[in-house]
Amino acid sequence: MGARDEAPGGAVAGEERTELKRAIGPKLLLLFIVGDILGTGVYALTGQVAAEVGGAAWAPFLVAFAIAMVTAFSYLELVTKYPKAAGAALYTHRAFGIHFVTFLVAFTVMSSGLTSASTASRAFAANLVEGVGGDPDRAGLVLAIAVGFMLLVAAVNLRGVGESVRVNVVLTCVELSGLLLVLLVGVYAATGGKADFSRAVLFDTSGEKNVFLAVTAATSLAFFAMVGFEDAVNMAEETKDPVRTFPRIMITGISITGVIYVLVAVVAVALVPVGELGEGDTPLTKVVSVGAPGVPIAAIMPFIAMFAVANSALINMLMASRLIYGMARQDVLPPVLGRVHRGRGTPMVAIGFTTVVALGLITLVTTSEGSAVAALGGTTALLLLGVFTVVNIAVLVLRRDPIDRAHFRTPTPLPVLGAAVCFFFTLPVTGRDPVQYVIAGWLLAIGVVLWVLTWFANRAVRAKRTYLREPEDLSGGGAVN
User: In this structure, how many other beta carbons lie within 10 angstroms of the beta carbon of residue 151?
Assistant: First the structure.
């Protein structure tokens, strides 16, 4: 990329100018990325991943880490080339220029936020019941708490939330403390002879699946734990020297979380038999309870998990409602979705719409067989893998759009590999639960119907085109797990 000179005011010569203050340094950016990745996925789905592959639960997390890393290289080229907050929707629009395709990508990102928040709500409810000594197998109680929690998130969203990277630092420390507690319990149990690490090399597939199919099916779930890194693109305009900072910090952040996830998976299967680990939605609470029985600190694990997933739910519902609001303001969704509360200045109709859809996901998916958390988390991964496929292709297409400013350039084979692998993991041949396609299909069908209704209204009533006037103004990042 070559050397760069300092310009007046601390900016880097050749760096794109912005009205925002570049106040985020490497340490804050690293904590932001790590905090976005940590969350519901590892706290709620470790047991489900183990149920697919047996003791080698670390393998799917390792594969998911590799996919995320390859895709991150594509995001690094695009975010340093186009440092705007619209993310995947903007990259898609610049690459292909088809407004409906851009809309579909934006709506898919929004939908992934809803499925992620719904996953978090279910996990929050299960951990709350576990924490107060109730029976987490009481489906009706867990459902009622999950619905109540989502309504609380909607109320907070309506009131208005001022987001801050420094607040994210506190949340990240809490989330990280829970995972470090699991690892410390693993060390404690190992010294007392209570851990059986030989389980971590055993593949025990379920049903008629072979090892390959079991790993791919488990990876489809484990990938949910790795999403969130792409949300960092929203910080590009506020990061100091993003061309130099983003590549090394994003790679470092993904690597840190990947290592933690693999270690947590190893400890989990070493302490709790796979059959028990895969039951319910509080696997790490079981790990701490088994590894350190009678130790008071084990009692706080469900509440740490609650805090982690609650943060994920709020951030995702904020993103989803603002993205719906942004699309409505650009007349590609019904204008009513763009109405704002006069007193609070919050997008009240968009918040109501996204809350209703999320409540539908929480309620209806609960009635299906298997784990609702796994179904919703897997759907989040499915939706984002589709988006990542498009982003990896967009990198190659946008090579035809050179800019006269230094930016990161990923080796060409990586986006090619990323597009192929991400697309592969969206296919049924991976052993993905069919219910995930049903959920994703219904969500995208809602988006298409709303687009068509808006197109008809624009054409028949307003005599205007239906298109995204300013894709750069679409707010919202990817789903935070």
Answer: 14
